[in-house]
Specification:
Layout: H1 2-23, H2 28-53, H3 58-85
Length: 97
């Protein structure tokens, strides 16, 4: 019973991350933070699933490796955006979409 409560709370955490990602698309830093919240909630859900069925955890290490690479890439894009334009606002790219 408690495992379902944990999984539902992290599913809510994932859905709230998706909502923030969609609604705050003008600020790149908020998009990065919501993306990291989604990655973290998926990681916890993945660990809960693997612990429940007692599977191997090697795929989790691969997932964490890719999530760290994604974090480093997004932070480097944020630094590049702030150096070029002086802010993290993506309003200047609205004409392209």
């Amino acid at each position: 019973m408690m495992m379902y409560l944990y999984s539902y709370s992290f599913m809510f955490f994932f859905i709230s991350g998706v909502y923030i990602f969609i609604s705050k698309y003008h600020h790149f830093l908020l998009m990065i933070l919501s993306l990291e919240a989604m990655v973290l909630s998926l990681f916890v859900l993945f660990m809960l699933f693997l612990c429940q069925f007692s599977y191997e955890f090697f795929l989790v290490l691969l997932y964490l490796t890719f999530s760290v690479c994604e974090s480093a890439l997004s932070l480097s894009l944020l630094v590049m955006l702030i150096r070029c334009h002086g802010k993290d606002s993506l309003l200047m790219f609205d004409n392209l979409w």
